[in-house]
């Protein structure tokens, strides 16, 4: 005689109900990222004894989201002008040069390229 097998209602990561999962704290209701944690970390690294008000933090966060939106829109336009369907690093660099003034664009591209290079090299496949 076969025993009845009760199936467990499993969702990913062990939650019983998908509704019970919490939303990610890094995404606000409007879909924009929240960089408050990173802004505080950089501030503490540069000036350890200073703090920043929540209003100022919101202003800087909005500025970062605004610049990100502008750069991504301009890079998308450049990609379309070149009749391509893939966004390349060159498109992003050209967008940064178009939107940011002189030395700021130069430093942004240099630091961005270095960060991407370090990221790619940190995930090199292991040969063992």
From TrEMBL:
Pfam families registered for this protein in UniProt: Histone
Transmembrane annotation, as ranges: none
Compositional bias segments (type: Polar residues): 14-23
Domain named Core Histone H2A/H2B/H3: residues: 20-98
Superkingdom of origin organism: Eukaryota
Region span, Disordered: 1-23
Compositional bias of kind Basic residues: 1-11
Family, as annotated: Belongs to the histone H2B family.
Protein name: Histone H2B subacrosomal variant-like
